[in-house]
Design goal:
- The protein is an alpha/beta fold and 477 residues long.
- Helix content is 36%, strand content 12%.
- A seven-stranded mixed sheet has the order 3-11-10-9-8-4-5, with helices on both faces. A four-stranded antiparallel sheet has the order 12-13-15-14, with helices on one face.
- α12 packs parallel to α14.
- The chain is globular and about 85 Å long.
- 41% of the residues are buried.
- One of its GO terms (molecular function) is DNA-binding transcription factor activity.
- This is HTH-type pyridoxine biosynthesis transcriptional regulator PdxR.
- Keywords: DNA-binding, Pyridoxal phosphate, Transcription, Transcription regulation.
- In the C-terminal section; belongs to the class-I pyridoxal-phosphate-dependent aminotransferase family.
């Protein structure tokens, strides 16, 4: 082993900073193997090279350094640690001799032949279980097999071949195409400047609520979409179930709420539509009470939807949430929000840039009419799925769009037990109770399931399994 030259003490008789720094306890592992200083652990009787050996050995055996990882050059590591290069060279040579490292033309690496180890979790850290595979009939799962067409793959290849960033509010071309898409599918003309690109409907809701002057009370439909209801809670908003009747939320229920989250075109999860008279009444009430109406237009591409509240008049402020999760795939992580003129700047300041490759791929897909053609195919397949569902559950309610359906259970049925039996059968259904807010839980039991991720033939098989698991005596009709 090469001799090591000790650092001289300073005037106060203490070791120099180089020696003290190296003798500190091991720091947290660097973000990349070899990207930070390897600090030796103080141990009586060990020289600096031996401590470097011990530190690298511990990182290899604990999995922090993996087989094949490249280590810093001896010169760079010596400079980072504040020690002589000879100490590092000596340590590397010993570890090469022991079979932990190997010297290559590309530098010193951990021997690739060593077994790969999983780094130990920090003490007290919760164990992370692998995400379960999506279960059949899980609500909200679209049929992604229909998405990956030749055009879809070509748009992604082109976007990846020419990556570019975009402003936080989104690509100008994509915003213009979204405005045209909304005009054609929702029959309303919108200034592209009011459209901001988001990471999905939840991100859009977060942006809108964060841009409002202060947190307050938000009215929510009861039942409603649980995932969206989580956002106001996290932002400190109080939630109040909106009083409703067969036509939807009542205009007088907007009194005393700063915002209201609505799905007038496809009320969740049963799929009812709000009549035009009620829409105009809600707009008038919102104008009077100063309530911001936030419309979730989550699956308008999958059915012939009436125009959104934006097109019903300008008497009240309206924000419109849009997403491609239902029409294409949740894995896309892309959406948009239309905000009132007075909130555009405040919302834009809070936008976080969405991947430029994702935006450019969707820009190409929209420009070449891919979304419209895909949606037309999806609607045809959805009609077949709804027919299959009604043949198995005649009293059920399938939502147009195919992502959800409701199976009503007879009064008094233990909904939780019914869901448990379905889960035991390998099905990912949910209980209707989970769609009600805490304050206004409904009294009628039911099962919520998804129809969109299977072929009609496979769907029938799964629905037969569900009917058997629930028990025919527990199902209405």
């Amino acid at each position: 082993m090469m001799p090591h030259r000790q650092a001289p003490p300073d005037r106060a008789g203490r070791s120099t900073a180089r020696r003290d720094r190296f003798a500190e306890p091991a720091a947290a592992p660097p973000a990349e193997p070899g990207s930070g200083p390897l600090r030796g652990r103080a141990s009586a009787g060990q020289s600096l090279p031996q401590r470097i050996v011990a530190d690298i050995h511990q990182r290899i055996t604990s999995g922090v350094l993996a087989p094949g990882d490249r280590l810093p050059s001896s010169r760079r590591l010596a400079a980072e640690l504040g020690v002589s290069r000879g100490s590092v060279v000596s340590a590397y040579e010993q570890l090469v001799g022991e079979g932990y490292l190997m010297a290559t033309h590309g530098g010193t690496r951990v021997d690739p032949a060593l077994p790969r180890r999983v780094p130990l979790a920090a003490p007290g850290a919760p164990a992370t279980a692998p995400a379960p595979a999506p279960a059949p009939l899980r609500p909200g799962s679209p049929d992604v097999s229909e998405v990956t067409s030749g055009l879809w793959r070509a748009t992604w290849r082109a976007a990846a071949a020419d990556p570019r960033p975009h402003p936080p509010q989104g690509s100008e071309e994509l915003r213009a195409l979204l405005a045209e898409h909304v005009r054609l599918t929702r029959r309303v003309t919108i200034d592209p400047r009011r459209i901001l690109v988001t990471a999905g409907a939840r991100d859009g809701l977060r942006l809108v609520l964060s841009a409002m002057r202060a947190t307050g009370t938000i009215g929510v439909e009861n039942p409603g979409y649980p995932s969206l209801r989580a956002i106001p809670r996290l932002l400190g908003w109080r939630m109040r179930p909106l009083a409703r009747d067969a036509d939807g939320a009542l205009p007088e229920s907007l009194e005393g709420v700063e915002a209201a989250l609505l799905t007038p075109n496809h009320q969740f999860p049963a799929g009812g539509r709000m009549p035009a008279v009620r829409r105009h009444a809600l707009l008038a009430a919102a104008s009077s009470s100063g309530t911001l109406l936030i419309e979730d237009d989550f699956d308008a591409d999958l059915h012939e939807a009436p125009a959104p509240l934006l097109a019903s008049g300008t008497d009240g402020p309206v924000a419109l949430l849009g997403s491609f999760s239902a029409s294409l795939t949740p894995a896309l992580g892309l959406g948009w929000v239309v905000v009132p003129e007075g909130l555009v700047d405040d919302v834009a300041q809070r936008c976080v840039p969405v991947s430029g490759i994702v935006q450019d791929a969707m820009t190409r897909y929209l420009r070449q009419d891919g979304l419209r053609r895909h949606a037309a195919r999806a609607r045809r397949l959805d009609r077949k799925r709804r027919e299959v569902f009604l043949s198995v559950f005649p009293a059920g309610t399938p939502m147009e769009g195919g992502l959800h359906a409701v199976v009503p259970l007879t009064p008094g049925t233990d909904e939780a037990a019914a869901v448990a039996r379905a889960r035991t059968a390998g099905l990912g259904v949910e209980g209707l109770a989970s769609y009600w807010s805490v304050e206004g839980r409904g009294g009628w039991p039911g099962i919520v399931l998804g129809l969109g991720s299977r072929s009609p033939e496979r769907l029938r098989e799964l629905l037969d399994v569900l009917r058997e698991a629930l028990g025919p005596g527990n199902i209405v009709g």
